[in-house]
Amino acid sequence: LRSTQEQAVTFVTESSPFIQAVIDLVEDCHLFTGTMKQLLHELDKRRVNIKARGAWPSGPVAAGHALRRGASALRAMGMEVEHLGPSGRKRDRLWRIAEPSSEPNRDHAG
Q1: Four-CA torsion 68, 73, 107, 82, nearest 10 degrees
Q2: What confidence tier does 87 reach under pLDDT thresholds 50, 70, 90?
Q3: For residues 79 and 99, is the Cβ–Cβ distance under 8 A?
């Protein structure tokens, strides 16, 4: 069973440049808290020509769907993925993606 889970995680991470970019961001920054728009902006600053048609979310809504699909793989890698729900005056939908031992003061929001 464990081998099957590991294969599934590997498949998800290798087949999704977006999820791989999220992994790289969290490994570098340890914690991201923000909206999907902020996450996309941060990932856009970091990525190198991987915006292949269909391989990268077209906007914040698609990014949210992609993150939901990849969340179980991220969790299996030990990362924390939380949809914090609407927040603030604009009712922004916030997400928190972190390494297991991340500290709140290391927050990186785009």
Answers
A1: 40
A2: low
A3: yes
Specify the DSSP class assigned to residue 108: B
First to last CA, the chain: 37
pLDDT score recorded for residue 64: 92
Yes or no: say if 34 and 94 are a contact pair by the CB < 8 Å rule: yes
Listing from the earlier edge strand, what are the strands of the sheet with 80-87? 31-34, 92-98, 80-87
Q: In this structure, are strands 31-34 and 80-87 parallel, antiparallel, or unpaired? A: unpaired
**Which pTM was predicted?**
0.74
* Residue from 58, 73, 59, 62 nearest 19 by CA: 73
